[in-house]
Design brief:
alpha+beta; four-stranded mixed beta sheet; two-stranded antiparallel ribbon; single chain
């Protein structure tokens, strides 16, 4: 067993507080939020059941963690209602509309600019 594997292997949760497994070695019956969503499920208010961990030089602390949830306690995703669809469409329209020229540019405006690139670069020149 490599030292990196040993630091990430804590199936009882004595070291990290929750059962911890190395990346790609989680037992069956657990899934991340993205895996749940891909299967049409959501955590449904359950607490984090376990985590997977791997070394990551770019991360502060040197580790990358993904939380796992139990599949047997997961609930189905709530269906999209007409009201939620309307609210989502309005939010996306607001993200695509430039506050300077008031034009829907067809994509989400970069938050680093705060306006469409045409307005951002024409005013700075």
């Amino acid at each position: 067993m490599s030292p990196a594997f040993g630091k990430c292997y804590d199936p009882t949760g004595a070291v990290h507080g929750v059962p911890t497994f190395p990346w790609k070695y989680a037992p069956n019956g657990y899934a991340t939020r993205r895996q749940l969503r891909a299967g049409g499920l959501r955590p449904g208010g359950q607490p984090v059941a376990a985590q997977v961990m791997r070394r990551a030089a770019r991360r502060q602390g040197g580790v990358s963690v993904a939380y796992l949830y139990r599949l047997d306690l997961a609930k189905p995703v709530r269906p999209m209602t007409p009201g939620r669809a309307t609210a989502l469409a309005a939010a996306m329209t607001a993200r695509r509309t430039c506050p300077e020229c008031r034009v829907d540019v067809g994509y989400c405006i970069p938050t680093s600019l705060g306006m469409c690139p045409g307005c951002a670069y024409s005013s700075s020149a």
